[in-house]
Structures are given as structure tokens and as C-alpha cells.
Amino acid sequence: MVVASHRARVGALVAALTAGVLVLGSGAWALGAAVFPHEDAASARSRIAVRPSPTASPSPVAVAVQTPSPTPTPTFDKAANSIDDPRSVWVVVNKSRALNPVDYVPPDLVQPPVPNINGQPVRQIVSGPLATMFAAAKSEAGLSLTLQSGYRSYQTQVSVYDQDVAANGQAYADTDTARPGHSEHQTGLSVDISAASGECTLNACFGQTAEGRWLAANAWRFGFLLRYPSDKVPVTGFTYEPWHFRYIGLPLATELHDAGVTTLEEYFGVPGGETYPG
Ligand code: ZN
Predict the structure, then answer these.
(1) What are the tens digits of pLDDT across the range 203-236?
(2) Which of 175, 160, 145 is nearest to 245 (CA)?
(3) So where are the chain's domains?
(4) Which residues contact 14 (CB under 8 A, 6 or more apart)?
């Protein structure tokens, strides 16, 4: 459809160009010479002489001819990065898509230069954008953010999940804690963010705080995605988490923002859902 509309624009431009040349009449001497630079003056004159309406004044169409055609937006390459490789910033991990290998450990974990409650690292590629986003929240809106959690290992996730099951039962645990090997936190690309004030930390009401609202509106500018939106629980398989942001890189974050798509599952057309297969 992009091609079709581009063709339509080109067609309109050609029509406008033709019309512009025709209505310019005697004023088209210079244009004729410019359009047909390899003709001698006599042949150019004879062609222009047969054109209709030699006395017509230049119309707005002639002005429109001068407007450069807008550059078509290149189609975003959805295959530019892997969504299966756990090292890829585009990897899609959910209840239907386990990390492979299931006990994957990121190769480049670092401590990001931001306030960090649990002291958990993130991947190198996340560290800079995270710090830049925290600084922007401060400078643009006067908000102080804190990193609540970052990378969690397979073994840590085993403990977190088992504790949730013991406390709340497996059915409940599966709604709010990923099974080991199915957690985005194991990629080192996901962060839980809280307000420095501690208001609504890891609670749905964080979405109504100034910090939560700022993050929801601006995280994409730094390459992050609010991964579990309130209206996409059946798609992502996880309850609304206004504190959980996934680094996906600026190009994809911008693409999702511009396209109005809020989940990786929908954008890449891959399964998610609220139940584990098997
Ligand atoms: Zn999280």
C-alpha cells in the first residue's frame, strides 16, 4: 500500500508537471530550454508554439510543480534482528516462548550508573539508555527514578517462582511470576523502575503516579517498551505492570510507537498467551 500511494503521488506529480508546462505558455521559453536542454532553440520553439493557451498566466499548479516529492518512508525491516536468539535486543520471551537455552546467562552484565535498590545488573547495551532516561525524567519533569530490579538468573527465578507458588498456589503464581526460563529479566534487557519516593512500588497504582505516567509516555524515546500494558493481558500473558520496561533499542521502539502497536507479540505475529504449553 505504501508502493501504491507512492505511485499515486508520482502520477499526480507527472500530471501536475505536464499541466504546469502547458499553462506556462509564452512564459515557458526558459522552462522549455531547461526541460529539453539538448534541443536546439528552433525545435524547442516549434514545440512550444503548438501548445494551447499561450496567454494564460502561470497557475498555482505551476507552483506546486516546484515542491519536491516527499521522501517515502522506508519499510521497517522486521527481520533485522533475531527474535529467537536470547542475545538479541529483539528477543521475544513469554509463556509460549522460553529462552533457549533455558538457563541462558547474558555475556555482558554491568552495573548501570543509576540508583539501584537490589543492586542487580543489566546488559551493557541497556546501561547508557537507562541512565539517559533517568536523567531526562529529572531534567524534563523533575522526577527521581530508581532501578528496582534488573537481571535475574535462572536460579533466582526458580526461587522467586517457587516462593510465589508456595504462598499463592501455582495458578495465581503463573499470572504474576514467570516460570524459570520464561522471564524477561533473565535476558538482562528488562528493568523494574520505581519512584525514588517509593510510592506504589511494584503496584498497579504506579501507573497513576507522575513517574509512572512520564515513563509510559516517554520510555520509547530511549528504546524502552512498557511490556505489559493493562489492555493486553491475553496477549502478553502477564498482568498489568506499569513498572516493567523492556529495552528493545531505539529503532524498534520508535517503530512500535509510530505504528501504535504496544506488544512484541502483535508486532512480530508470534504466540504469547496466559498459559504455558504442555
Ligand atoms: Zn519486571
Answers:
(1) 999 999 999 999 999 999 999 999 999 999 999 9
(2) 145
(3) 2-65, 109-268
(4) none
Cα separation of 109 and 221, whole Å?
Answer: 23
The count of other CB atoms within 10 Å of the CB of residue 35 is 12
CATH architecture classification, 109-268: 2-Layer Sandwich (3.30)
Residue that has been written with the C-alpha cell 519533569 in this structure: 141
Half-sphere exposure of 17 (CA within 13 A, CB side): 13
| C-alpha 258 to ligand 1 mean position (Å) | 24
Catalytic residue chosen out of the listed positions 184, 211, 241, 265 = 241
Contact between 215 and 127 under an 8 Å Cβ cutoff? The reply is no
- Ligand 1 geometric centre to CA of 12 (Å): 51
Each residue's pLDDT tens digit, 3-48: 444 444 444 444 444 333 333 333 333 333 333 334 344 444 444 4
Catalytic residue list contains 241: yes
